[in-house]
Amino acid sequence: MKLNDVRSLSKLFIIIVLLLCPCVIANTWYGDIIDSAKELFKGSNIIDGALKGLRYVEMVDSALAEDCAFECPYPNQTPVPKRHHQPTSNGCGSFGYLFPPENNDNWIYVEREFSACCDRHDHCYDTCNEDKDDCDLVFKRCLYSVCKSKDILLAKKTCQAKAKMFYLAVIGLGCQSYKEAQKEACNCVKKYKEEL
């Protein structure tokens, strides 16, 4: 890929992000995009800027893909669980941004009870050969069950709106996180042909 192609793709991606999500640029992973673009277009450290730009282009590409599945780099390989791998969780967040715990000053705070759902979801992504769609569906059910337990109607509706937001986020933006977690959880080994 030529440098001009990288710059064009980076510009296009930045325009799309700015058009779709102008309200959340500060204090989120979108800030990293802006920083990457500044580095890329400034001319210094052009390789780092290009690599960051490509990573975000890959993330958008993954978000637009119809099916999200981890694949080994070579066609004659298959993923198998790493022997001593322990699934991990970063709580309710991704791309270096964690949603704050309950805080009445911020509408996007996480319901305290969502934390267990987020942890289970992260563990599912971080378990070799787990299906992303299955992980996401279990996550959705967990979030919605938290909201069903709310007694006050306004609290229930607010919780449901947050649950939908989190579920849509993993559906739309979770592919890259899923693939990265699978890469950490799996070893790619040579396939052996089964004898008939």
From TrEMBL:
Protein name: Group XIIA secretory phospholipase A2like [Megachile rotundata]
One BP term from GO: phospholipid metabolic process
One function term, GO molecular function aspect: calcium ion binding
SUPFAM superfamilies found in the cross-reference section: Phospholipase A2, PLA2
Alphabetic keyword roster: Membrane, Transmembrane, Transmembrane helix
GO cellular-component term (any): extracellular region
Residue ranges of coiled coil: none
Record bears the keyword Nucleotide-binding: no
Originating organism: Lepeophtheirus salmonis
